[in-house]
Amino acid sequence: MTRFGITASCALLTAGLIHPVLATESQQDRSLAPVPTFLEEATAAGIDHTYDGAWEFFVGGGTAIFDCNGDRRPDLFIAGGKNQARLYRNESPTGGALKFVPVDSGIGEKQAGKVLGAYPLDINNDDLLDLVVLRLGENLLLEGKGDCKFELANRPLGFDGGREWTTAFSATYEPDLDFPTLAFGNYVDRSAPGSPWGTCHDNFLFRPVATEEGGVAYPEATRLSPGYCTLSILFTDWNRSGEPALRVSNDRHYYRGGEEQLWAVPPGRPPRPYRKSDGWQHLKIWGMGIASIDLDVDGFPEYALTSMGDTKLQKLDDESDETVPIYQDIAFDLGVTAHRPYAGEDLKPSTGWHSEFQDVNNDGLWDLFIAKGNVEAMPDFAAYDPDNLLLGQWSGKFTEAGGAAGIGSDRRGRGAGLADFNSDGLLDLIVVNRAAPVSLFRNLGAGTAGGPKPLGNWLAIDVRQPGDKNTRAVGAKISVKTGNRTVVKDIQVGAGHASGQMGFVHFGLGVAERANVRIKWPDGDWSHGYRVFANGHVIIERGAEKARLWYPE
User: Fold this and answer.
1) Residue from 409, 408, 415, 407 nearest 434 by CA
2) Cα–Cα distance between 432 and 412 in angstroms, integer?
3) Which of 15, 247, 464, 524 has a CA between 20 and 30 Å from the CA of residue 172?
4) What is the tens place of the pLDDT at every residue in 189-216?
């Protein structure tokens, strides 16, 4: 049976997620998506930080966006490469100019050096967010202690951080395991003869082991071999089977005979790569970043893959079924190739890094941000390569708005993240640049520097599972319905480029003043519908009768 068979359709209808894939005539008649205005505020906000270093730091340069002190405002941990990684506490006034204060994280100078990226995750189920730190050398598991303090937990967790060059991370909760499974993507094997050409390192999968004291340990890694110089990975339920697989994006600049990869990770059994005999198609790109979203709400996510020269947007083929991962590229059809700079006179190919789907103008359509920048001084690729902001349109296509929005900086972007730093319902933007200061943009909506103005209505949702397992509901799906239209987003750990975030999940609502929210929990159960008003922060706990409101000070 194809993926549009009776069984799949009935399941989606029961969940309330089916709607026409094509926009209605009235939607198609709407004007182009409104363009938000971004104002660069890094220096004024108190962030003076640069990611830099030798060729090992040409890649990486990520940021973790998460609440480290319990005030529900997103704080920042920023990689430094040869410089020290820095932790910044968010003190932005609600609706005002952005403000961050550097704080002592509690980790030593040695551990804060040679950092390429970081991802927040509640590893030990205490509902305090921890940090997974990717390094050139030993990777770190930092246990959150509250008040933006962390303790190195490698030894207590039995975790061997290795000595690899680690550039990617993802995590998931497997069935019947109380703690997260961790996947690390490694780049060039610097110890191999002939490095760097054709010397990619294996990737590692760490499954949790429960201790007698009721805690967790990660004593042994499973090698995912062969590795092809990975720069982004993501646990994703590509076929909605309830069993996440591991999507791996690899850099063809260094491997021999490699390709993009998809690994099956069956519970309790060794992982295995999908091969040609499984329907997996050979794809060789300079894979840098992954972003995932279900654009047409058919139950199967699409994947934006950044690269040097173009961006792929993969959709599961109509003839595929739930066992055969056959994809078609729809990037050109929808206008998201991002293959050359949209400004300046340099017509050479672009170099894409971090990618992320969000709704930056609150019109209810997903937009795609791509951080761009030459690896260093590669003559065959554009030197001036401004970041992309591709706004979703009611026609289903995307339109470039990076220059008009004010984010077209002459810097070499790497990792990034979109989050509402000042709790005004507008997504702001941080970009970690190579050998240049971090960029921090405040979203002014339709306004100017004189003050923000709303573009559309919005909703921010924080999902929790009270108890002693997966408190942040990793693997859950949030469904938001306004009128006869539904959008969905998964809670995931991974993707982007060396950058992750956890906290409120943002949805644009357009002109809708209320929404119906349902949660598909990680075990597959659906919640009842929560009727909520627009323009607010809501917390939905599993089993709660009503959503709880949070009001920023």
Assistant:
1) 415
2) 9
3) 15
4) 988 887 788 899 999 999 999 898 888 9
* CA separation for the pair 415, 354 (Å, rounded): 5
Structural element, H or E, at residue 133: strand 130-135
- Percentage of the chain beyond pLDDT 70 is 93
Greatest C-alpha distance within the chain: 64
Strand arrangement of the beta sheet that strand 115-121 belongs to: 115-121, 130-135, 140-146, 149-152
12 phi-psi bin (left φ>0, alpha ψ -120 to 50, beta other): alpha
In this structure, the chain runs to a length of 553
- Judge contact between 391 and 336, C-beta under 8 A: no
Two tokens at 399?
């339109």
The 10 Å CB-count burial string (b at 16+, else e) for 399-429 is bbbbbbbbbbbebbbbbbbbbbbbbbbbbbb
How many helices and strands (H and E) does the chain possess?
A: 6, 39
Q: Tell me how far apart the alpha carbons of residues 324 and 415 are, in angstroms, rounded to a whole number.
A: 32
Answer whether 274's CB lies under 8 Å from 264's CB.
Answer: yes
Residue pair 107/68 in contact by the 8 Å Cβ criterion:
no
The tens digit of pLDDT for each residue in 471-491 reads 999 999 999 999 999 999 999
- Tell me, yes or no, if the pTM score tops 0.90: yes
Tokens of 68: 């480290």
pLDDT of 28 higher than 90: no
pLDDT the model gives residue 531: 98
Q: Can you tell me the distance from the alpha carbon of 471 to that of 474, in angstroms, rounded to the nearest whole number? A: 8
**What's the pLDDT at 25?**
33
pLDDT at 12: 39
Torsion of CA 155, 160, 165, 167, to 10 degrees: -80
What token pair was written down for 80? Answer: 């430094």
Strand locations in 367-435 (E)? 367-372, 388-392, 398-400, 412-419, 428-434
Residues paired with 32 in a beta bridge:
none
Task: Give the model confidence (pLDDT) of 79-95 as tens digits.
Answer: 999 999 999 999 999 99
CB 297 within 8 A of CB 17: yes
252 closest CA partner among 244, 261, 243: 261
Q: How far apart are CA 429 and CA 104, in angstroms?
A: 23
Tokens matching residue 441: 């943009």
